[in-house]
Write a structure and sequence with these properties.
The protein has 281 residues and is mainly beta. It has four helices and 15 strands. Helix content is 14%, strand content 45%. Strands 6-5-4-3-2-1-15-14-13-12-11-10-9 form a 13-stranded antiparallel beta sheet. A two-stranded antiparallel ribbon has the order 7-8.
Length: 281
């Protein structure tokens, strides 16, 4: 067991080191090296930030193909202003480690049957009324503070480079102090919804805690709090995300995820040409 050397003005550190060395008749250089090897003077290396982000992705997203219902509700100054319900069909893309997604609008009635498709880097919106599919951007706002990209199943570690920013105590989605690791995420492609993200993860269980999303110029777009963790398909996952506008904290969007169901998703569903023939199942 290592103990600190006792020193005083009359017995300074150098003399203390010399006293330790003299009985063994070794040089100061080799004895100090031995002390450094045997005593925990250096803190353990920080966790791999990219690995931690990937582990958090696995908490948010089931590994295989699945469907999930996403209910979105927009509030302004505490009053509900709009709502929408979607069903997302997600399937891992072969070779990329990312997901392909088909999103079906279920409510309100005026939007029922509309579709969004993400296959690789392509994102399409299909309106059965016009039977036309048009390219859209993942950055486009869908409802309230939720963008098209927010409702898609995404592995962040595939789209962002993560940098370690230290450990902080932040307020979580339940309003409680929570110690978390802060990562700075930088987009590796221009087609992702947000080019810069600050992301906080619980280092013990790898659960996401909160996030701040920025423009490329550093302007805060919004904040997100992950909460209501429940067992879903074998893993405890967040089932709600509270999204707050970066300028107006009274503009809030609540995303609620439910009805996770493992399912075989045909590749045909994930092709643009199939959109006019898709029928809800």
């Amino acid at each position: 067991m290592c103990e600190p050397l006792k020193t005083s003005k009359r017995f300074p550190l150098r003399r203390a080191a010399t006293a330790v060395l003299r009985p063994a008749r070794r040089s100061l250089r080799w004895t100090v090296a031995a002390l450094l090897l045997s005593c925990p003077l250096v803190q353990a290396a920080q966790p791999d930030p990219q690995g931690l982000l990937a582990a958090s992705d696995a908490v948010r997203n089931p590994a295989g193909s699945f469907s999930v219902q996403v209910a979105m509700t927009e509030f302004r100054k505490g009053r509900q202003t709009s709502a929408s319900t979607l069903v997302v069909y997600s399937k891992p893309a072969a070779g990329s480690g990312q997901y392909n997604n088909l999103v079906r609008f279920a409510a309100p009635a005026r939007d029922a049957g509309k579709l969004m498709l993400r296959n690789g880097l392509d994102l399409w919106f299909y309106d059965p009324g016009t039977r036309a599919s048009v390219r859209i951007s993942p950055q486009q706002r869908l409802l309230g503070q939720a963008s098209n990209g927010d409702v898609m199943t995404t592995n962040l570690a595939r789209d962002y480079a993560a940098q370690w920013q230290g450990t902080e105590t932040v307020q979580d989605g339940e309003g409680k102090p929570h110690q978390a690791v802060k990562l700075a995420l930088t987009a590796e492609r221009s087609d992702v919804p947000y080019l810069r993200v600050d992301y906080w993860i619980d280092p013990v269980n790898q659960r996401p805690v909160m996030a701040r999303y920025y423009t490329a110029e550093g302007r805060l777009l919004k904040l997100a709090y992950f909460r209501r963790f429940q067992p879903v398909l074998g893993v405890v996952r967040p089932t709600e995300t509270v999204i707050i506008d970066g300028l107006d904290p009274e503009w809030v969007t609540l995303m609620q995820l439910s009805q996770y169901t493992p399912r075989d998703i045909p590749e045909a569903w994930l092709q643009r040409d199939y959109l006019p023939r898709f029928a809800a199942q």
